[in-house]
Write a structure and sequence with these properties.
Layout lengths: L9 E5 L6 H10 L3 E6 L3 H11 L3 E2 L2 H4 L6 E4 L6 H10 L3 E4 L7 H14 L3 E3 L7 H12 L5 E9 L4 H5 L7 H4 L9 H11 L4 E7 L10 E7 L5 E7 L8 E6 L2 E6 L2 E6 L4 H4 L16 E4 L5 H14 L7 H20 L3 E2 L4 H11 L3
Parallel strand pairs: 1-2, 1-4, 2-3, 4-5, 5-6, 7-10
Antiparallel strand pairs: 7-11, 8-9, 8-15, 9-10, 11-12, 12-13, 13-14
Helix pairs in contact: 1-11, 4-5, 5-12, 6-9, 9-12
Length: about 375
């Protein structure tokens, strides 16, 4: 951390007229950041933001990056994330970018490569990783609390009215957004899945536009397999009303159920591998211990800012570094590729093939 950051990092914000920047303002305040310049192509909406922060407003990114700063915050639409992040990194700044890291994983590859080449920090706003119940689930799985993982299931629903999509023409479009529920609403859910259970290695996916008048998917279902042999199912939709987020993981030693605000762990008294070869009633299920629970809490942008500032001070990676967020985007792209080609996908994803598909879907 530079001496100049003793009172909080000096920040430039790109895409500061975006609605999501309001959440970032709370994060910036939480770390006593000094916003010394904001940029957006929409100058009319940007002016009140600059006045509130008491800093200059820029239309040109190049002019903004001449301002001496420590950190760039990018809240511009995600099709521009890669280009903007690389420009900021080359200007000598660390970068915090909104989710998703980019539209396609080949772009994220370039972002990560440039970060490593320059020795900078690239963080992504996957603040759900910092929820206490998510942290506990990841730790328990890594410690073997559920034994050998056998099955992982994810359900997430984000019901939306038609007005959500008509309020911004880029929503639900291939050219403007690069996808639908997967690239937008489902990003935190897919990231929690990868963060707790690891990235799957084999995918068969189906996508539907079952309710909304959009060109991209509003619902996705997929069968997935992990390199360990564990299997599972993913279902995410903006056209259904069910639990907001539910991740269930079953292993030989027990099972856990993760929802927003709560983690429940039920351990088996005996590992099912031992149970299967033990004598006794062949129809009797393995006995279990009393459930253990972890109470969570809602975690928003201040948490990701506090973690990033602490990481920079300690010289450690942030909780959601670019190379890790890349795995979530690769899964996202793979789900789309499988659905549109009707093929099983094995990771790593063929970047060139996915790029060609995306250009076709975008009408290029």
């Amino acid at each position: 951390m530079r001496e100049s950051e003793a009172r909080g990092p000096r920040v430039v914000a790109i895409g500061a007229a975006a609605h999501i920047f309001g959440s970032h303002l709370r994060g910036l305040a939480a770390v006593d950041a000094r916003v010394i310049g904001v940029q957006d192509v929409n100058q009319e909406r940007l002016r009140p933001v600059a006045e509130r922060l008491g800093c200059p407003a820029f239309e040109d990114v190049g002019a903004l990056l001449k301002t001496e700063a420590d950190l760039a915050v990018i809240t511009a639409p995600h099709p521009f994330h890669a280009e903007l992040a690389i420009r900021c990194l080359r200007a000598g700044l660390d970068v915090l970018v909104e989710k998703p890291i980019a539209v396609e994983v080949a772009e994220a590859d370039r972002m990560v490569a440039e970060t490593e080449r320059l020795g900078r920090t690239l963080a992504v706003c996957f603040q759900h990783r910092l929820r206490p119940e998510v942290q506990a689930a990841r730790r328990l799985v890594r410690e073997g609390a559920v034994g050998e993982v056998q099955r992982v299931d994810l359900l997430a629903t984000w019901p939306r009215r038609a007005g959500y999509f008509t309020s911004a023409p880029w929503r639900g479009s291939w050219k403007g957004e690069g996808g639908g529920v997967l690239i937008n609403q489902g990003q935190h859910d897919l990231d929690v899945l990868c963060y707790v259970a690891g990235q799957p290695g084999r995918i068969v996916s189906w996508q539907r536009t079952q309710l909304h008048a959009i060109e991209t998917e509003d619902t996705v279902s997929a069968m997935v397999e992990w390199p360990s042999g564990a299997t599972g199912f993913i279902h995410i939709s903006t056209a259904e009303s069910d639990e907001e987020q539910r991740l269930e993981l079953t292993g030989t030693g027990g099972r856990l159920r993760l929802t927003k605000g709560k983690l429940e762990l039920i351990r088996n008294e005996v590992d099912v591998r031992d149970y299967a070869v033990s004598p006794g009633n062949p129809y009797e299920a393995p006995p279990t211990l009393d459930p253990e629970t972890v109470t969570g809490e809602d975690v928003s942008h201040p948490a990701i800012y506090r973690d990033l500032v602490a990481a920079r001070a300690a010289g450690r990676p942030p909780v959601a570094p670019g190379h890790s967020a890349l795995l979530t985007l690769e899964l996202t792209n793979a789900l789309t590729y499988s659905a549109h080609t009707g093929r099983e996908v094995r990771l790593p994803l063929d970047r060139a093939s996915y790029g060609a598909l995306l250009r076709t879907l975008s009408g290029e």
